[in-house]
Amino acid sequence: MRLADLPTPCLVLDRRILQHNLAWMAHAVARHGVGLRPHMKTAKSVDVARLAGASAITVSTLAEAEYFVGHGFSDVLYAVGITPQKLEQVAKLNASGAAVMVITDDLDMAGHIAGQVLPPRVLIEIDTGEHRGGLAPDDPLLLDIAERLGPCLQGVMSHAGHSYGGRSPQEMLRYAESERSGAVFAADQLRAAGHAVPIVSIGSSPTARAAVDLAGITEMRPGVYMFGDLFQAEIGTHRGEDIAVSVLASVIGHRPAQNRVVIDAGAIALSKDRSTEATGNDQGFGLMVDVLGRRSYGRSIVGQAYQEHGMVDLDPILPVPYLPIGSKVRILPNHTCLMVAAYDRYFVVDEGDTVAAIWPRVNGW
Fold first, then answer.
1. Could you tell me the CA-to-CA distances from 230 to 127, 236, 244 in Å, in that order?
2. What are phi and psi of 128, to 5 degrees?
3. Are 146 and 124 in contact (CB under 8 A)?
4. What's the rounded Cα separation, in Å, for the pair 171 and 337?
5. 45, 130, 199, 222: which has the fewest Cβ within 10 Å?
6. Domain 3-11+244-360: top CATH class
7. Annotated domain spans of the chain
8. What is the pLDDT of residues 135-167, one digit of tens each?
9. 45 contacts 57 by C-beta, under 8 angstroms
10. What DSSP letter does each residue of 259-300 carry, written as one string?
11. Model confidence at 100, in pLDDT bands (50, 70, 90)?
12. Is 311 exposed, middle or buried (0-12, 13-18, 19+ CB in 10 A)?
């Protein structure tokens, strides 16, 4: 089967680039002597997780947790604040032999967790600058939550999602150090109060790349590095050629007066995340490349996205490409995590346009 034979839109995953990205991050983390607990929220695929070579993983939904536990991954961190209603599902997974770990930053929730017949392991979430969830490293509530958790407590975790605002190596280094130092400070506070803290977990793809010192950290949890995207390339997480996933689309119309072509991949297929809009290189809803993934069309971007239609603004500098109706092109994502969420499988290529494998992925919550 070749890419030209596939229904569109669909996901294409370049295994060669994926393996490069996985190897690079494994080396980047290993040089600091810390563990890698990759976040599978983007890939949501057991085939990708096995290639990553990690025995412990991170997930963002309990559907992912069930899927990966069912495929032999027992050490799973559910890295979204737990609620009382979800504890029963976690308990069932752990009763089956898994070791699903949860997070909280709430005193009442700590009591709910500790009151379970078989309470899960818990990390207290620390806010090191993103202000999405977690306690400040010096928040007195940290010790109260730890006391309430008792032996359930395993450590602390943080996520420097605000590092996506960095635009230079120096900024990324500062984000990485604030993430590290904040998590370590919180862990030290707990240890000084007599609590065991075997896990100090941090991670985002930009800070994992930028960090020069991970003293006091036990594990990193990057995720988007596996596939990459246009935004991560802009902020220096990886090179532009290291984007492993794209949407295969068909040309369905021409608008010569507007120097546009129309494709059958719109807002649902590509997502409406315009993350590169915040950089100096806005790439619309994605960049069009040829069916082999080569940047043959220059700066041809999806400038407008309807539900099922994408309007590609062709590069005004290059000659208009010959793209008959039905021609296949690929769209590189602005934000991989949101783009791939629309699909249930990857069509895997190694080189060229031959489909070497089909890998399913899990969706839902």
1. 27, 10, 11
2. -110, 20
3. yes
4. 24
5. 130
6. mainly beta
7. 3-11+244-360, 32-226
8. 999 999 999 999 999 999 999 999 998 999 999
9. no
10. TEEEES--HHHH-S--GGGGSSS--TT-EEE-TTS--TTSS-
11. very high
12. buried
Confidence label for 284 from pLDDT (cuts 50, 70 and 90): very high
Instruction: Determine the Cα angle at 357 with ends 351 and 359, to 5°.
Output: 120
User: Do 32-226 and 3-11+244-360 have the same topology in CATH?
Assistant: no
End-to-end CA separation in angstroms for the chain: 32
120 φ/ψ angles, rounded to the nearest 5 degrees: -75, 165
Gap between the Cα atoms of 227 and 244, Å rounded: 5
Structure-token pair, residue 355: 């489909």
- Cα dist from 192 to 187, 188, 243, whole Å: 9, 6, 44
114: confidence class by pLDDT, cuts 50, 70, 90: very high
Q: In terms of C-beta density within 10 A (0-12 exposed, 13-18 middle, 19 or more buried), how is residue 256 classed?
A: exposed
Q: What is the DSSP letter of 341?
A: T
* Confidence (pLDDT) at 295: 97
Q: What is the pTM of this model?
A: 0.96
* CB half-sphere exposure, 227, CA atoms < 13 A: 31
Counting every residue, how long is the chain?
365
Give residue for tokens 């494994």. 26
Q: Please write the tens of the pLDDT for every residue from 11-37.
A: 999 999 999 999 999 999 999 999 999
CB 323 within 8 A of CB 312: no
Which tokens go with 284?
């619309």
Tokens 């306690």 appear where?
A: 135
Bridge partners for 200 per DSSP: 156
pLDDT at 351 over 90: no
